[in-house]
Amino acid sequence: MSATPAAPKTSHAVRTVLGDLDPAELGTCNAHDHLFLRSALLPGQELDDPAAAAAELAAFHAAGGRAVVQWTPYGLGRRAAELPALSRAAGVHLVAATGLHRAAHYERLPAPDTLAELFVTELTTGIGATGPRAGLIKVAGGYHGLDPHARRTLTAAAAAHHATGAPIAVHHELGTAATEVLELLCGSLEVPPSSVLLGHLNRFPDPRLLRELAASGAYLAFDGPSRANHATDWRLLEVLTALAEAGHGEQLLLGGDTTTAAARSTGDGPGMPFLLTGLRPRIVRELGERQAELMLRQNPARAFAVAWR
Q1: What was the pLDDT predicted at 42?
Q2: What is the DSSP-derived secondary structure letter of residue 113?
Q3: Is residue 136 within 8 Å of 167, Cβ to Cβ?
Q4: In 17, 63, 197, 265, which residue has its Cα 20 to 30 A from 92's Cα atom?
Q5: pLDDT digits (tens, 9 = 90+) for 148-198
Q6: Are the CB atoms for 65 and 275 separated by under 8 Å?
């Protein structure tokens, strides 16, 4: 009688632009940022300069950063083919995104019935003819609700997740509609909450709502610190402290979300380094070194690690 073959072992990996990486090797991580970005909503403010991207990565590395997750999705000037060389030169792991932003960012959208296949192809084969594979799916909700475009892209993202295991990162317009996103993704579309990253929650810092979102098991991303036009820095430590004290410290992610050339450290700033030079010391003073390491190293390693299918 022959023995039953053992089930193949699956190991989790972060899919970077240089290949799949052991999550333990990810290092200090900026969990949401942009090296390249062009949008119809930001004319004249494009991130489209490889030399400037290289300088920003070098500054982040000098501050102790070792990984950046770029949330720029399909059709917004990702310049994915540039990312491997930038990663090697800076010594910074980069994760690229597939997915689709809000419709207002585009002059032209792909056909709705092609979205899931597009996302899967970019996750498993590569972005374009010569680009690396994406390591996450970036989509967006609407403002205080889900419009038809948001529902289509979230549905396609769920299909791509089920096909590949990839995490889904969600832009929330001014921090709203996170509850509706969770109800769709983790309800009828059956995506595990641990595979969902809810972005821009610092822009809607309702403590009770944030505790409800954390109770779902999803990751909560607080990105874009030091933006005077949002309720960010002056409420951020209060919110992070409350969530950590409520037992949700292992679900918190931090990112810079640099979206214009002027916001880089080589412009008016503060750019990517601020996450480590400005925000991290405040977190250490308020919450201690262990919580800072959770948010900037251990939590991203789990959030972006996938048993790829």
Answers
A1: 87
A2: G
A3: yes
A4: 197
A5: 999 999 999 999 999 999 999 999 999 999 999 999 999 999 999 999 999
A6: yes
Q: Are 143 and 176 in contact (CB under 8 A)?
A: yes
Beta-ladder partners of 138: 99, 169
Task: State which amino acid sits at residue 241.
Answer: T
Answer for the pair 30, 256: CB distance below 8 angstroms, yes or no.
yes
Q: What domains does the chain contain, in order, with CATH numbers? A: 13-306 (3.20.20.140)
Which of 16, 15, 31, 26 lies closest to 221, judged by CA? Answer: 31
CB crowding 213-238: b at 16 or more within 10 Å, else e: bbebebbbbbbbbbbeebebbeebee
Q: How far apart are the first and last CA of the chain?
A: 31
Place of tokens 């607080």: 222
Q: Which residue has the tokens 């930038």?
A: 86
Query: Is residue 165 within 8 Å of 309, Cβ to Cβ?
Result: yes
pTM of the model: 0.94
* Other Cβ atoms within 10 Å of 260 Cβ, number: 16
pLDDT of residue 2: 32
Pick the closest to residue 86 from 119, 49, 123 (CA basis): 49
Task: Quickly count: other Cβ atoms within 10 Å of residue 250's Cβ.
Answer: 15
pLDDT score recorded for residue 235: 87
- Separation CA 169–CA 181 (nearest Å): 11
Give the residue from 249, 169, 250, 236 showing the smallest Cα distance to 207: 236
Q: How many CB atoms lie within 10 A of CB 73?
A: 26
Q: What angle do CA 98, 99, 100 make, to 5 degrees?
A: 135
Residue 227 sits at the vertex; the CA angle it makes with 221 and 230, to the nearest 5 degrees, is 75
Measured between alpha carbons, how far is 128 from 121 in angstroms, rounded to an integer? 9
Beta bridge partners of 34: none
**179: phi > 0 → left, psi -120 to 50 → alpha, else beta; which?**
alpha
